[in-house]
Amino acid sequence: MTEVFDCKDLRDALMKGASLDDPRLRAHVRECEGCAELMAEDASLGHALAAVPAMPEMDLSGMLAGLDDALGREESKLAWLRNRSTTARIAAVVGVGVLLVLVGGAAKIRPDISAYPLPRLILTVVVYLSLVGLAAVIAFRPLYQKPVPRGVLYALIGVAALLPFVVASMPQAHAHIAGTPLGNGADFIPRAFACFRYGVALSLPVLVLAALADRGAFRIGVWPVLLGAAAGLIGTVALELHCPITEPIHLLLGHASIAMFVGILALAVRVVRKQKA
């Protein structure tokens, strides 16, 4: 019985530098497309591949041990939050944001609440909080899902950062009420800075929590700007419920600028971390 050559026999012959002028080998090459490519042009490809040094054997046990160490370190760095479900992480960030709004805004409700147009206030609060929720849903979406179109991401960042300026530029909600701060004249800068500082202080915990709950978006592109601007809206919402000053110039400087500032701050943090990495 005639011995039949196969792919392994051709490989062994190439590796050993043996003669390739064997009728059995040529018969196999005529039937095997892959081996025919190796033998084309005086077996130039086959000889070239045979000359490639063998890859060193991989230390799989060492690799697994390193992976275990890395996972152990990850568990020690608050990975518990990132390992929660998408719904749980969104609920945590939005829930903390709403809690801060209640503590920083509703619990210290603006003294002019009886004169302020209630539909306007409710609509503003609902729209801002909806943007926060939408940003969290998009930022925390599972990585296996289709990426968010860049245009949608930029549009959402633009709305979150610029809408407060549009709201602040609207006609004054009501005239000044006696006994409430004016927010202009000599009080303009101190009052505006006080509101800005108050809003940023309420926004930063949300931004930090979002960064801890994030599974990678915070380290990529402009995603930090979205999370930062959304966190900044928490401070703006709280001020809508807390601050009685209705002067547009005060609202523009002390309230509307918060979302943009926190968004830029988040991006700056990402850039610094990337440079240090």
Provide an overview of this structure.
By secondary structure, the chain is mostly helical. It has 2 domains: 7-50, no CATH class; 84-276. It contains 11 helices and no strands. Helix 8 (150-168) packs antiparallel against helix 11 (248-276) and helix 10 packs antiparallel against helix 11. It is rod-shaped, with a radius of gyration of 32 Å. The protein starts with 6 loop residues before the first helix and ends with a helix. The mean pLDDT is 82.
- Please state the structural category: mainly alpha
Task: Report the C-alpha radius of gyration, rounded.
Answer: 32 Å
Report mean pLDDT, rounded to a whole number: 82
DSSP strand content: under 5%
Please render the helix and strand layout as text.
Blueprint: H1 7-16, H2 23-31, H3 33-50, H4 60-75, H5 79-82, H6 86-104, H7 118-139, H8 150-168, H9 188-213, H10 223-242, H11 248-276
Helix pairs in contact: 1-3, 2-3, 6-7, 6-9, 6-10, 7-8, 7-10, 8-10, 8-11, 9-10, 9-11, 10-11
Using brief descriptors, characterize the structure shown.
277 residues, mainly alpha, 2 domains, 11 helices
Describe, in short, the structure shown.
The chain has 277 residues and is mainly alpha-helical.
